[in-house]
Amino acid sequence: MNRTAWTAMAVLLLAPAWALAQRTSVSGDFPIYDNGGKPDFTVDPKRFVSQMEIVDRLFETGDCELEEGTVGGTGYRRLLRFDTVIINAGQDLSVGDPTDPANPYHDNFFFAACHGHYHNEGFSDYKLLKLDGSLAAPGHKQAFCLEDNLRYANDAKRQFVSCSFQGVSSGYGDWYYKQLSGQWIDITGLPEGDYIVRVTVNAIGLFDEGENRYPDTVEARVHVPDPRKKVTLDDTPLLQEK
Ligand SMILES: [Zn+2]
């Protein structure tokens, strides 16, 4: 299902200022095409790389992240976090009301108590690999609430604006920003070295992407510092709204 993996090679911790300030402008790389009425998802490779960072964060018993399995334990955890924007460069995908039993995707939704809304189970998959391709950190499947957040095509029409009626319009992107709960890979204790971050969307193949011209997988190379080295401590509130 994943065609060529999109490899954005970059040393992320040395991302230049222009990369951080850059407005997302990848629409030209993924022009909308006639995909027989089906969506075609891909990940914005520029935002993925430009927003990537490593932070430490404290987790305590009872935190949602332990319940959801996005961190491996309590205490200070080291997180490699990033933005995932799923661009739909095919036609509109209407997923609809997750609570409607007649919805064909009904069984793939579950109610996320910490978030207070329904998530699409297993939509995306986050992994950290060693350079030889073997698994370095297990990562997790990140649950999504699909909606229109960022416009990629000038004439795109925004239709899906809440988790209670989900979908991604043609030319829109569904944005999971790094301040969101779970929008990371737990790399606590990982030895210093170079690794590959891999994000796959539509990971379980729930949605038919037709011709699937654009890759469902994005990769970037990252340098992980010595675990004893200090990184930014992030104690801002985690966002659960998406
Ligand atoms: Zn949520």
Task: Compile the SSE list and pairings.
Layout: E1 6-8, H1 17-21, E2 41-43, H2 45-50, E3 53-59, H3 64-68, E4 75-81, E5 84-88, E6 93-96, E7 109-112, E8 117-130, E9 135-144, E10 150-151, E11 166-168, E12 172-176, E13 184-186, E14 193-201, E15 217-224, E16 232-233
Parallel strand pairs: 1-15, 3-16
Antiparallel strand pairs: 2-5, 3-4, 4-13, 5-12, 6-11, 7-8, 8-9, 8-14, 10-12, 14-15
The protein binds zinc ion (ZN).
Mean pLDDT across the residues is 89
Could you tell me the strand content as a percent range?
35-45%
The largest sheet is: 6 strands, mixed
- C-alpha-based Rg, rounded: 17 Å
SSE succession = EHEHEHEEEEEEEEEEEEE
* Helix/strand/pairing category: mainly beta
User: Which cofactors or ions or other ligands sit in this model?
Assistant: zinc ion
Distance between the termini: 26 Å
Tell me roughly what share of residues is in helical segments: under 10%
Domain module count: 1
Per the principal axes of the C-alpha atoms, what is the gross shape? globular
Number of helices: 3
Low-confidence residue ranges: 1-23
| Quantity of strands, as a count | 16
